[in-house]
Design brief:
Structural class: alpha/beta
CATH topology: UDP-N-acetylmuramoyl-L-alanine:D-glutamate ligase
Number of strands: 16
Strand content: 15-25%
Order of helices and strands: EEHEEEHEEHEEEHEHEHEHHEEEHHH
Shape: globular
CATH superfamily: Ribokinase
Number of helices: 11
């Protein structure tokens, strides 16, 4: 596929006839971002206009899509990542290659750098700035081509499709249209932007924090953190429960992540709200918790687990994620999750 001055790889060419014929089954398809992260460990976030010294700095692979795909494959799901990268992507892809994420649908752009992010991380908070780079060039055409290669038009395809907002809105909409009704669609609308009604209608499981839920419903609560924030506590849980009580049945299944106060689930339109407590760990870096949760949730649902069972395992995966610096924990394994849940 040629996109003007932009060189890219057509996903149908990359996957080939074997993928289209289903010779390599896919449990989870993640449509999302790949970033090069520059992270700083801090005792506290700087004030406006202030320069402070970090305790450490690291350059790693990142991006919500990449992080979610790696978590899914670490927990046993056969996972494909559809993402766009630039010619500088190899450091961002190393963990994915080593972990076993299928990258044969990767779209390579010749004239734009890989997305990047600067992360300021404290033991209980973080602030992140991203530059989309190649992520902004992923298109609906790439999604439709991959859907055809994976057999979505014939009733087959991945068990779960995981989506987030570090790619253009047209990409998310195209994935919902291409895979809806054949795959279970998970959407984490982070970073926050409004979600079109037709997209919401095609989403099976919506995963948000309390702030994003408030934005979704157009309701502001002082206890709720800003969208994407790592807030926690009884105030946030109470705010989220009030918001869930007002949520339209049309939103269907909702999963609300509450940081150290766990997770709220509302399965189906008007279903009961279930609270899953968080697992207490020595938190070092909260950046990767949400991505580990979503990747683990996708893997669990793809395996046939119930929403509650998958969310319990995802809560454990998120807890493991915060015990190490960076957005990815190489020690995230099914046995590590089992051990944490058994405590």
């Amino acid at each position: 596929m040629s996109d003007g001055a932009t060189a890219s790889t057509d996903p149908t060419d990359a996957l080939g006839a074997a993928g289209a014929a289903g010779a390599e089954p896919v449990d989870v398809l993640v449509v999302g971002s790949v970033n090069l992260d520059l992270g700083f460990e801090l005792d506290r976030l700087p004030r406006s206009g202030e320069t402070i010294e970090s305790r450490s700095a690291r350059r790693t692979g990142g991006g919500k899509g990449a992080n979610q795909a790696l978590a899914a494959v670490q927990l046993g799901a056969r996972t494909v990542l559809l993402a766009a990268v630039g010619p500088d992507a190899e450091p961002a892809l190393a963990d994915l290659v080593a972990g076993g994420v299928r990258l044969d649908a990767l779209v390579r752009m010749a004239d734009v750098p890989t997305g990047s992010a600067v992360l300021l991380v404290t033991p209980d908070d973080n602030a992140i700035v991203i530059a989309p780079g190649a992520n902004a060039r992923l298109s609906a055409e790439h999604v439709r081509a991959l859907a055809e290669a994976l057999g979505a038009g014939t009733g087959s395809g991945p068990a779960v499709v995981a989506l987030q907002h570090e790619v253009p809105a047209e990409v998310v909409a195209a994935a919902v249209a291409a895979f809806g009704g054949r795959s279970r669609i998970l959407l984490n609308p982070s970073p926050w932007r409004p979600v079109a009604p037709e997209v919401l209608a095609g989403v099976d499981v919506l995963v948000v924090n309390a702030g994003e839920l408030g934005e979704l419903l157009g309701v502001a609560h002082p206890e709720a953190p800003a969208p994407g924030a790592a807030g926690s506590g009884a105030g946030e849980r109470a705010a989220a429960e009030r918001l869930l009580a007002t949520a339209s049945p049309e939103l269907g299944t909702l999963v609300v992540t509450l940081g150290s106060d766990g997770v709220l689930l509302r399965e189906g339109a008007g279903g009961p709200v279930v609270h899953l407590p968080a697992i207490a760990v020595d938190a070092r870096d909260t950046v990767g918790a949400g991505d580990a949760f979503l990747g683990a949730l996708a893997a669990g649902l793809a395996s046939g687990a119930s929403l509650e069972a998958a969310a319990r395992r995802a809560t454990a995966a998120a807890a493991l994620a915060v015990t190490v610096p960076g957005a990815r924990n190489p020690g995230l394994t099914p046995s590590a999750v089992d051990e944490l849940l058994a405590r």
